[in-house]
Amino acid sequence: MDLKLTEHGFLVSTSDWNESVAVELAKLNEITLTPAHWEVVLFMRDYYEKFNYLPNTRIFVKAIANQFGAEKGNSRYLQNLFPQSPLKYACLIAGLPKPPTCL
Which of 3, 33, 63, 102 is catalytic? Predict the structure, then answer.
């Protein structure tokens, strides 16, 4: 699969995203997608479509808690899914732009 990526590994065009692209982006970042990952990835796509912006980490965790409950909406749970940076890698795999608060 020939993906056009930014220097940080995000899709150049969010319209290039589909589930196969998500799987490839996850592989490139050594993440094996589970149903728990998909839940967060698809949530982020819906969030971005609804609000047209990406949250900071605190709002991201709170939004996950509001949608899926406190057992999933906490930093420990999200860190287990995306060890390097939950918000950054959830957005990257979701085919969204790099969150402005991520380095």
Answer: 102
Q: Please name which of 85, 1, 95, 86 lies closest in space to residue 36, comparing C-alpha atoms.
A: 86
pTM of the model: 0.93
* 32-85 per-position pLDDT tens digit: 999 999 999 999 999 999 999 999 999 999 999 999 999 999 999 999 999 989
CA–CA distance, 31 with 100 (Å, rounded to integer): 22
CATH topology classification for 14-93: Arc Repressor Mutant, subunit A (1.10.10)
Alpha carbon distances (Å) from 41 to 35, 36, 50, 81, 101: 10, 9, 14, 11, 18
Instruction: Please report, for residues 7, 31, 32, 42, the alpha-carbon distance to residue 91 in angstroms, rounded to integers and kept in the order given.
Output: 15, 13, 15, 10
For residue 91, indicate whether it is catalytic.
Answer: no
